[in-house]
Amino acid sequence: MADKDGLWKSSATKILAVSSPGGHWIQLNRLFPVFSKHETVFVTTNPNYRPGISLAKFYSVIEATRKEKLNLIIQLVEIFYILLRERPDVVISTGASCGFFGLFFGKLLGARTIWIDSIANTQILSLSGRLVAKFADLWLTQWPELSTPKGPEYKGRII
Fold first, then answer.
1. Would the pTM of this model clear 0.90, i.e. be above it?
2. Strands (DSSP E) along 71-128, which ranges?
């Protein structure tokens, strides 16, 4: 995934790794061996995950769902601010609203973007995954039967 897809510029690549808590977060952290060679900034909605992120930068944003419109707006602003402050080269997410906003604004600001739909989505892609498709430079599913010629691609599973 690294150099052949042109997603990492060099050893000095700055990555913004963003996801919701729970399974999304676990899957994102399974990719830590890839992140460890780069400056990585983590973003999630659970501030209690901070101790598990050794020396990397960590941000917590408000939890939001599509039913919580005000929280979605606050989360959107928080993610946009983090992206303006950090200016990552790559934004990667395993899901939900904060991941969608991360990829959306990351793409607008010139970052390369990677979306990995959650392994929990066995029958249909997540809503965020379907919406983010046009902003993802690399759009992946963890189920071969959800892969299509137009995307997402199947390259294996994280869990």
1. no
2. 90-95, 112-116
Which domains are present in the chain?
10-154 (3.40.50.2000)
Tokens representing residue 2 in the block: 């690294």
Whether 32 contacts 94, CB under 8 Å: no
Is the Cα torsion angle 114, 116, 117, 123 positive or negative in sign?
A: positive
* Per-residue tens of pLDDT for the chain, all 159 residues: 344 555 555 556 999 999 999 988 988 988 888 888 899 999 999 999 998 887 789 999 999 988 999 999 999 999 999 999 999 999 999 888 999 999 999 999 999 999 888 766 667 777 777 788 889 999 888 778 767 788 777 787 766
CB-based burial label for 15 (10 Å; 0-12, 13-18, 19+):
buried
